[in-house]
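INFO batch 0412 | record 1 of 1 | parsing
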Amino acid sequence: MSSDRSMWPHTFVRPGGFRFEISVPVWLIMQRFQQSEMHMAEAGGVLLGRHLRDGSAIIVDDITTPLSGDRRARARFFRAQRRHQAIIDEAWRTSNGTCTYLGEWHTHPEPIPTPSAVDWTDWQRRLVSDQYSEPIFFVIVGTKHTSAWEGRRDGGIVPLSLIQR
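INFO prediction complete | emitting tokens
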């Protein structure tokens, strides 16, 4: 692999030392939506991927990107549930149950992204209402860095640290 950091999986450390990994193809797609210009609206979607059988890692292999029906503004993204859910269902079906919903991602127009009050409220709601294999993840792509959090059904949300290469 190249020494260029964009060509390596982006790996975060989870509680217990386990890994949450965003594959290179997914990372590159997310970067296309980075809000590097003032006119760019927030983007987002769902994280799709797999849990390794040995429990050592959870890997994001695919994502949804903005679809018709989503609402986008400079500092807001609202995901239209039905279209994204159809993609989740199809990924599950065609993978024979190995590709699953892992959480949500979106962009922020700030260098080091931090969750807004709206993000925290939405994440808490998802932890209670979404159907998922615990845990689920929340990723925010900023203009310079990407941050990730892990959430559990008990409402606990913890920040994850990116492993620097």
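INFO post-check: Strands lie at 10-13, 19-22, 44-51, 57-63, 71-73, 76-78, 100-107, 136-141, 146-151, 157-162.
INFO record closed
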